[in-house]
Structures are given as structure tokens and as C-alpha cells.
Amino acid sequence: MRCKSRTGRRGRVAGVVTAAVVGFSTALYGAGAAGAAAGTPGVSEPSPPSLKFANPNSQALFGTAYKAALKNLLQTNTIGFDPAVYNKSGLMDPDVGILRAGGGYPQPWTRDASVNSWNAASLLSPAVARNTLWSAVDKDAAGRLRVQQDDQQWDQVIWVTAAWNHYLVTGDTAFLRDAYQAAAGTLTIREHATTAGYNSKYGLFTGASFFNDGIAGYPAPPADATESVSTGSMPWPGVASGMFLSTNEVYYAAYVNAANMAAKIGRPASEVASYRAKAARLKAAINKRFWNPRTGSYDYMLLADGTAGAYQEGTGLAFALIFGIANKSQARSILAHASEMTWGMPDTYPNWARYSDEQPGRHNAIVWPVVQGLWAKALAGQGAQGAFASETARLAKLGDGNSGFWEIYNGHTGVVDGGWQRLGDTVKFHWGSEPDQTWSATAFLNMIDSGLFGLDFGDRSLSITPTLPAGWGDVTLRGLRYRDATLTIALHGAGTKIRSFTIDGRRVHGHGVPASLTGAHTIDVTLAGAVDGDRDGDRVPDTRDRCADTAGTAALRGCPDPGHIEAEDALNTGGVKTNVNHAGYSGRAFLDGLWAQGAASSYVIHRETDKPGVGTITLRYANANNDARTMTLSVDGRKTRQIVLPRVSGSWDDWGTVTVGDIPVSGHDPVVTISYEPGDNGSINLDWLEFHDSAR
């Protein structure tokens, strides 16, 4: 339940379903940590693409996050594997790696494997994605392929949509034939299961919410006020027999995609029709049982006794839009009534009675980037430009401000936070949030690929229908490998209306790239119809906002005060992250993690002049070590001097300041960096930086 114990799980997602559906999900379970081993794949994958914005502020925010997300996917979390543990399908390539779930979670897990493949890996690392999908598959006694039968039965069908998407992206028909066997077998198992199976009374599937494998994701009932039975969700009878929005939506997607698979490989028409009929019945049941005209949205749950739960489930709302379960009227209503937190779409909402803003539940009123990614995908699909821009900027800021993509963040403050959980009357514990989470990184990659650039993979072509928000500026994605072609895609203007679409300078009708295309090609798309809003609330329209959504902007509120920048709003790398476990800090948080060489915190100083000058910098810091500490100060990448930070006291709750003068600066936006370099001894916490410019 990613709330899980170290040997348990967590909760994840991904997906797509329309006429040609595509979709995906979250955690690959069953293959234990003991089977994973660090290693370098022996088969080369395509070189990663690059993202470049003409607007330097957009590049600083989104370009930085994109580069970090690529590293997370293609380097940090691509690992070797033990065939004895993972290759139960017999279909894996031993010379290619797999994707682990992330730091703290060395397994792939079914949901993680599926959502990561669907979000990004099938496009950016297809051989690794293929291996990762097969790592979640084994065989029954008769040798038939099936998604492995583990203790998280309700999420097995997520694999079906990820597999169909993998075919659409790669055109791998050999993979598709085997994938259909696994899909058909798994759906049959689930339809006849006594646990997490089909409830004929309601026409819905039972079992936990797709994402919420921890009981913190459920109100009482089916939980109780102290979570006395288990931290997991399925040991609770009310959860096991209950019906939840997102789970039934991924079953719907699985049926649609199984039908697509069957049709593509030439199965009998009756077989295809059977899956489509099951999908239609399930879609009707979802709308009958979960749509709530009073709230203008979908309910989260329906318990076996008929008790409904008019709560918000982030993945459930996203899936309703992505998979086309909601009609146009319902979609408009969802967008009008959805509640987001300061830092993004929460998992479940609002707080259950046993949690609070001060102690949010691990799966309740808290932000998981994997949910943000799905919601952003849904927003882009609905043409909600401003909301898409804000959600994408939030996740970019969370990644840029915390040395990459963590598992969970506080929805109000954006601070790295694993959330709270209970186990009986006397035990209430605070979970950690793990670093380097693959599905957090692939969520951002999908925001760029399917949201910003509007990449939509079909059987015969790749459609490109971008969403380029006002103020972001022109942007180019270079070196994108699509089947046998290498694409450069350049977006110009802003909005969602395509005014011009050219391939290699020749105007083409429609907005598609043929799947048969080979070699290198350049696609130019000119857009119009931008909504010129004021996303950061600084009373400057987005098209004229010099600092809209830039790195270093506190909570999306425009340019920071050049004289005072909170450390949590800096670009932080090398293990530096936000924290609140000591008192006395200002702003939303302070920074820790400045404990090893390579740790750095960078501040964009927005000056009112571009003339060269000198400035004075003051740092507020904590040092409870027994001696003075040193760090290196750089300006625009040039080392200026080593600074000394004296011991403040023996308590990390006490803060001091140090001021350094004669700092050379030039240009409108110099970058001041505090870093742990060779010759430094670091090990401090940072609260804020103040800058005073003598040129002003």
C-alpha cells in the first residue's frame, strides 16, 4: 500500500481507453526484492530525447524536471534481474534490464510495471518496458500465461491496458499475441474469483480501490476510527467485498483493450464482441452506481450493503475522463467540481475524521505524483489548459525542489511527507516518503509527452494534438524514437488549436505521423487558442508574465522577492530535500540533505537590471555540529568563494545567519548556488537566502 511495509506494497496507476483504448497502471507485485540486482542491460536502447524551451524560465522549471525524470527512468531505476525470480513467463530477454518501483522498493510490482510502461517506458525504453511487463506474468499448471496471482488480486487487470499500449507504441505483434493469452486468462480468473471478483447484484467488481492498498485510503466504514484490523486494505471485510470507482474503471479498460487485442490478432468475431459487450455493461453499471447528480461527480465507493461514499478519488476521476466513461456533460461537471490541494490533485479527499491537515493520511488528502500525472493527462484531454499548466508546474516544482521525484508530498505545503497511519488505539505512526520513485518520474514524463505534445498512439499512426499553455513559449522535443523513425517535434505559439502541421516543411492534412515512417523527420506545429489566464495570481497575464511558473517561485505565485528566497523554493539537487522535523524555520519548510559532496541549493535572483554589479548574500542556517562548517558559493556556475557557517548551538531547532559581501553578479537572472564541494565539510540545514544588489 505504498503505505506498505517494506515487504508490502503501495498503490499506483496509469491508463487510456477510448475507441482504440490504451491505458495502464501501477504496482508489480509478487517478485520479491531478493530477485532484483543492480546491473547494466546488455542491449542498447534508443538515446533519450531532449526537451528545449525558448523561454529560459520554462526551461529552468520544466526542462530541469524532464532531464531528472529521464535519469530516474533510464538510469537510476533500470536494473538487472534474476531470471529464476522474474522470468516465470519464459519471455524475458536476459540481456535487457527491468524497471524497479524506485528507491526503497527494488521490485517491479504489477501496478508499477504497468503504469511506468504506459506512462513512458514503452516509448522511451521499449525493450526494458517489454521485459518489465513480462516480469509480472507467470504460467498456470497447464502452461497458460497469466498475470501473476499474488495478494493484490484486484489490480492484475491493469496489465492488460499497459500491454495494449505497448503494442500501439512499438508495433510488436509477437508481443501482442502472447499478451492476449495473458490478458484473456487473467480476466477469466478474475471473473470467477471468490475474492476481488464479480458481484452480479451490482454488476461491478469487488476489491480495493485501484490505488489504495492501504486502509488509510478509506473512510470509516469500511475502516474503523483506529484502523485496528490491518494497515493493508484487503484484510478489511468491507474493502474486500466493497466496490470502488477506479478498480471498476480499469476493468472496463481491460475489456476494451482485450477486445482490441483480439481483433488485431484475428480472433473470432464472437470473442471480440463478448469483450465489447462486457465493457459496455460495466460502463453502464459504473455510471448507474457511482455517478452522483447531487455532487456533480462520481462517488468513490459502494459497499456490499448498498452504502455509498460521496468522496473524491483522484485516480477515479482521472480514469473516468481518460477512458471515456464520463460523457461530455459529466466531464464538464467533474472539472467544475473537482477539489485540488495547493500542490495538486490528492489521492482521496477530504480528510477522514481520523486524520487532519496536520497529520494527513498516507492515502488521504495527500499528493502522490502518480495521481497528479493521471489527472494532468485527463485535463489535457479535456482542453483544460490552465489547470493542466498548473498541475504540470506543481510536479515540476516538487521534483526540482527536492533532488528529484519522491513518493508522496504534503498537499498543503509541498514538503516531502509519507503521511500518517494508525494501528489500534495507541499506535499512530508517520511513514517516510521514498526517493527516486519511478512512477512519480514517469508521471511527469507523461505530462510532457501526452499532455504538452499530445502524443496519442494508434495502430497505424501517431497523432499529435498538443496543449501548449500561454506563457510557456515555443518548445522542441528532439530525438524522439517512434518505431523506425526519429522525430523532432517543435511547437510554436500557444493553445490547443492547430493552425499549421508540417512534416519536413510540407503541410499535411490531419495531425498524424504514419507508423510506417522511417528515418529522421521534423514536425512543426503552430498553435492558437491559448487561454491567457493568471495562473500564479500575481495580476500579470500569463503571456506577459516574466516569471510565470518558474523554478524558485513560491507556490506558483509569480516572481519571488529578489531580496528573500525561501530555501524550499530553490532548485535543490544531490539529495537535498524539504523537511519540517525541526522548529524555528520560516516559510513552508527548511532544507536538509546537505550531507555529502554534490549536494546543492540554487537560487535564481531576479534583478531589475542586467548591468554587472556586486551584491551581498545572507544565509539563514542551522549547525548543531561541534564545529564550524563550510560550503562553496558559486554564481552562474563559477565558484566564487568558500563560506564558513559557525556552530549555532547544540540544537537543530536553533538558527543563525552569515553574511557574505562583494558577490559579482550580472544579467537579469543570475543563479547563486550553495553547494558541498571537495574541501567542504557541509552537514547543515538551510532556511533562506537574502540578496541585496548594489546595482539597484
From TrEMBL:
Question: What PROSITE patterns does this protein's entry cite?
Answer: CBM6 (PS51175)
CBM6 domain boundaries = 563-692
Extent of the signal sequence: 1-30
SUPFAM superfamilies, alphabetically?
Answer: Galactose-binding domain-like, Six-hairpin glycosidases
Coiled-coil portions: none
Q: Which domain of life is it from?
A: Bacteria
Kindly name one Pfam family recorded for this protein: CBM_35_2
Tell me the keywords, alphabetical order.
Signal
- Its name, as the record gives it, is Glycogen debranching protein
**Organism, scientific name:** Actinoallomurus spadix
Lineage here is: Bacteria, Bacillati, Actinomycetota, Actinomycetes, Streptosporangiales
